[in-house]
Amino acid sequence: MTDRYAVVGNPIGHSRSPAIHARFAAQTGHDIRYEALLAPLDGFEQTVREFAAAGGRGLNVTVPFKERAYALADSRSPRAEAAGAANTLVFDAAGIHADNTDGVGLVRDLGQRHRLPLAGASVLLLGAGGAASGVVGPLLAAGVGALCIVNRTAIRAQALAARFADPRVSAAGYDALAEVPPSRAIVVNATSAGLADAALPVPAGVLRSARFAYDMVYGAQPTAFLRQAAAAGCPAMADGLGMLVEQAAESFRIWRGVLPDTEPVYQALREALGGR
Ligand code: ATR
Known about the structure:
The protein has helices spanning 17-28, 44-53, 66-72, 78-83, 102-113, 130-141, 154-162, 174-179, 204-208, 224-232, 241-256, 263-273; strands at 3-9, 32-38, 58-61, 75-76, 88-92, 95-99, 122-126, 146-150, 169-172, 186-189, 212-215, 237-238. The termini are far apart. The chain is α/β, with parallel strands linked by helices. The longest helix is centred in the last third of the chain and has 16 residues, at 241-256. It contains 12 helices and 12 strands. The strands form 2 sheets. A 6-stranded mixed sheet has the order 2-1-3-5-6-4, with helices on both faces. A 6-stranded parallel sheet has the order 9-8-7-10-11-12, sandwiched between helices.
């Protein structure tokens, strides 16, 4: 019998997850169907329960439901616990199990696709919302030497840092970057500023002396943050398309027990976006 999966969000129309999982299924020979589900803002929990009751085996969860997916679950993986949010649900006899593959997706994209050694690296994480909180634990687990969380609302960065109680983690506002500019950092944009095509108040010197600029968002054209990094003279950069494919692969592994080869899927998506 064909096993059913879906991605649930609001909006959901532009999700690339169905195309990614269809490629993973073809590549591994797994017989699955993977759809996109639009959940009403006041009906996420019901949508999940109905999908499970109809025989669905698992869900990916996207904006704005990741915290609610976490709350809804009967059990949670340590990385979902660390994020306080879930992007992957598994339905089995024990109920709903929540996991979070976003952080491992970022770590694999940086470490494997972009060949950045993370052990001992200095990371500047811009943003302290849902996207940022999902990646702190996995970056620490990957052995980064220092992780500074920088946010417009500094108190939110402090609150996120405090959740990890790890001496490598610090928190700051953007103004602190000008006072003590970090050098050779991997600068990761986890803010939603790019959705409004807005630049971030990161001093140009920080980007010029950075090792790498990474935007969790992706698109056909360079994002506002990557244009800002390029204008500042940052030596290397990437958008978040690879993270998207890697987090999907890890979800597929959780559900199906096999980790797909992500590179051909990444290349196909990049080509479909316009081949930059
Ligand atoms: P997400 O789930 O995408 O992380 P979120 O939880 O609403 O969404 O968080 C959005 C993040 O982007 C926050 O860190 C926010 O900063 P504040 O906490 O100060 O609001 C950040 N952000 C959004 N627009 C921004 C802008 N124009 N400049 C700087 N930071 C911005």
